[in-house]
Amino acid sequence: MVSPVSEEQNYGLLSRMATNDGHGENSCYFDGWKAYENDPFHPTLNPGGVIQMGLGENQLCLDMLQEWIEKHPEASICTAEGASEFKRIANFQDYHGLPEFRQAIANFMGKVRGGRVKFDADRVVMSGGATGAQEILAFCLADPGDAFLIPTPYYPAFDRDFRWRTGVQLLPIHCSSSNGFKVTEAALESAYEEAQMANIRVKGVLIANPSNPLGTTMDERTLTTLLTFTNRKRIHLVCDEIFAGTVFDEPKFTSITEMITQDDPTYDRDLIHIACSLSKDLGLPGFRIGIVYSYNDTVVNCARRMSSFGLVSSQTQWLIASMLSDEEFTHRLLSESAKRLSERHAIFTSGIGRDGIQCLTSNAGLFCWMDLRKLLKEDTVERELELWKTIVEDVKLNVSPGSSFHCGEPGWFRVCFANLDHETLEEALRRIRRFMEERRRKTIKRRREEMPPLSLPRTREDMSMGSCLPSPHSPLVRATS
Amino acid sequence: MGKWLGPCVPLSSMATSNTHGEDSPYFAGWKAYDKDPYDAINNPSGVIQMGLAENQVSFDLLEKYLEEHPEASGWGSTGISSFRENALFQDYHGLKSFRKAMASFMEQIRGGRAKFDPRRIVLTAGATAANELLTFILADAGDALLIPTPYYPGFDRDLRWRTRVNIIPVHCNSSNGFQITLQALEEAYAKAETAKIRVRGLLITNPSNPLGTAITRCVLEEILDFVTRKNIHLISDEIYSGSVFSPPAFVSVAELVEERGLENSERVHIVYSLSKDLGLPGFRVGTIYSYNTRVVTTARRMSSFTLVSSQTQKMLASMLSDEEFTGKYIKTNRQRLRERYEYIVQGLRAAGIECLQGNAGLFCWINLRPLLVEEPTREGELRLWNLILQEVKLNISPGSSCHCSEAGWFRMCFANMSLSTLEIALKRIKIFMERGRQDIASLI
């Protein structure tokens, strides 16, 4: 339809930003999604299709939200009950946001943190989802070439959100399974030093608490380590608390905001910034409700101005303001959501536990961090990706390989459990069981075939020993040659 | 304050610069209005806001539609998708039904003289985001976009702030009704070359804000030839395309591109939004339409930072797919805008004020140069603006905030208030003008 243009011609016409791969879509994190899109599971129409377990979405309480909306037509400006507000709301584009929206968000954030922190509605800034929130904070806090340190493993899209258009770098703070992937002071110092040596200016640390993909919450000790470190270095601490409302088990969630109370001058509050959203807690990713909350006035002002590039639709602000002002409802929702997540988590972990698969012990999030290290032939990323390919193509489950999260140890996989219904989860568990049983059968068969009485001779000498040659990679052959 | 040693790392240079542009008088007037807003009953002597280009003349048509079509408002069984599906929908391709509806709406506005492929529509949260996004895609930091003056003050922020791209003005003046000339384009381009700044594109607003005029066909042809010759992009911000209320008929760059058989169209991109034509700025619905497939793909990826709420997409898809409704809306809206325009022009003329002859938009470009007899400078213009704000209690936008190279022009909006408020605004300005030029000049 459009006249053909040579690739080079087109290339030169666009910016470097447009032609690099900062968009991050070349990551294998997305390959699984593509496999799913090409062959999506459906219980009746495509029962052999790929089950999507790579999407960190919370679909467990949408029925409650739907019920609330049906009972409150006045929350929509398009219904007869809400129509009187249509004109005012449709016209409202002030980047401060509707005051009732900001207040409702501030109250909700407090509620999610068990009422232990009070949030100031004047510090609530809107953004285009948490995606937009992260980018705004990067633009406010860092110049191109500067860096933020980030604990691994981390959510793959941070690479895009924090770096693509900002030119800011993300440098890893290496965490390992030896201590449950907790952030240590040594790891922080090491990452910082490495940046210093490479002449890269570190502007801050970016953490996600609860963690994606680990599903764990940070303990007070770790939070203290982070606060002490960033204060000492006089750098920023950006906390993505998008999963704060998905904590379903002990230990209880401690938000960074609880560690920096107003009267305690230990930590410089000007360095603390939060990003969150309603995409996970409420399960409303389509509505694009992102929040930047900062204790730094200059950052609030700058972020607010930048929010012009990604304001929340006033129609949506109005709906959310109504919904979140319903204290009884939000209380019920949060508690029911935790219950349902806990149940799901238990079903999944006990299910795969019976097949001998362990997950990192977790108490939050919409996923498990599954340990498949013992299934790897070698402790390498290549083997992890091989295994992942098998899982996607043969077992037909889209799970996310740890390497796409920059995990330093091959063999870990993130598996989501809240974005599918109960029956689909059971089907996924059945497939995992079959896969593990098949592997066990193959292993037993291989071992039997490697045992001396069944070996075939390769040379006269071997003949006398009665050894067998099932395949050139038999360990027995290697041992004798 | 604390026991910390030494200052902390500085914020970004972006956070501490003032490229956000809010120190401009364009915004100072808004602040004055916010402090003392006119209200017919509660504050009849307050400031009347005439600096806000909003369209409030056709809301009743939308309200009526929603009343008659309850399925557009909820997620019921007759709705396009259930609540659950909608709430989860965050695909940056956007709701297919919505893209189709936008494409057909854009076609209707252009009287069917251009076709829009829904697959080339990228959705963003407002035209603000669309313009910034395109700039990120088409230019590197340090590069420049050419923009004819006078232009919308918000461009200084939208196109430059986070992108670090420069704007080089293409100077237009009243000698030919501020039309863009080839000479002005060439001059601006040469200036950039001398300064060793790489020009990546030309951004035009058609119809123009603040002029309120649609660009003529022959100027548009010249512009297309110019960008092709220089191998640069053309961004046509057509946000006011639905508000062309008098001849000459609106000619979109889309029509020209089609007439040329899509030759060299890979450098043409159109920005549109529902904020002006439908009067829904709060809903944040902007779009980029590009003839360049790579731009479409990249823009779509970048739109992740600025998606349109799926709740809003669903509601509008329903409304905009109703071609009978949209056809009637477009026609009625134009008519009402024309009536408003004629009303304000008449009122201004009676007060002794001339405007640039306009045929589109939500504002007039008024000529107050005769009042700057003694000081036809930017400073004089700003003093006159302040005088009008403080004494006449009208917030209008000074031409200098739009980078107009001639002092004395002001933009006056007429569609963001009731007719009775407009009447009062005109009365005030008439009284002011009756003081006479000498008197006023002495006050400036």
Describe this structure as you would to a colleague.
The complex is a heterodimer of chains A (481) and B (444). By secondary structure, chain A is of the alpha/beta class. In chain A, 42% of the residues lie in helices and 12% in strands. In chain A, helix 6 packs across helix 12 and helix 7 packs across helix 11. The longest helix of chain A has 29 residues. The termini of chain A are far apart. The relative contact order of chain A is 0.14. Chain B has 444 residues and is of the alpha/beta class. In chain B, 42% of the residues lie in helices and 12% in strands. In chain B, strands 2-8-7-6-5-3-4 form a seven-stranded mixed beta sheet, sandwiched between helices. A four-stranded antiparallel beta sheet of chain B has the order 9-10-13-12. In chain B, strand 9 and strand 10 form a beta hairpin. The termini of chain B are far apart. Classes of the chains: A alpha/beta (481), B alpha/beta (444). Chains A and B meet through helix 1, helix 2, helix 4, helix 5 and helix 7 of A and helix 1, helix 3, helix 4, helix 6 and helix 11 of B.
Number of strands of chain B: 13
Mean pLDDT of chain B: 93
Tell me the major beta sheet of chain B.
7 strands, mixed
Strand coverage percent of chain A? 5-15%
Helical element count of chain A?
17
Topology of chain B as a string of helices (H) and strands (E): HHEHHHEHEHEHEHEHEEHHHEEHEEEHH
Give the amount of beta strand of chain B, in percent.
Answer: 5-15%
Largest sheet of chain B, order of strands side by side?
A: 2-8-7-6-5-3-4
SSE topology:
The complex is a heterodimer of chains A (481) and B (444).
Chain A lengths: L6 H7 L2 H4 L8 H11 L12 E2 L9 H10 L14 H6 L7 H14 L11 E5 H13 L5 E5 L6 H6 L5 E5 L11 H13 L4 E7 L11 H14 L2 E5 L31 E6 L11 E6 L2 H10 L7 H12 L1 H28 L3 E2 L7 E5 L9 H15 L1 E2 L1 E2 L10 E5 L5 H29 L9 H6 L9 H6 L1
Parallel strand pairs in A: 1-11, 3-4, 3-5, 5-6, 6-7
Antiparallel strand pairs in A: 2-8, 7-8, 9-10, 10-13, 12-13
Helix pairs in contact in A: 6-12, 7-11, 13-15
Chain B lengths: L12 H4 L8 H11 L12 E2 L9 H10 L14 H6 L7 H14 L11 E4 L2 H12 L5 E5 L5 H7 L5 E5 L11 H13 L4 E7 L11 H14 L2 E5 L15 H7 L8 E6 L12 E5 L2 H10 L7 H12 L1 H28 L3 E2 L7 E5 L10 H15 L1 E2 L1 E2 L10 E5 L5 H15 L3 H7 L1
Helix pairs in contact in B: 5-12, 5-13, 6-7, 6-11, 13-15
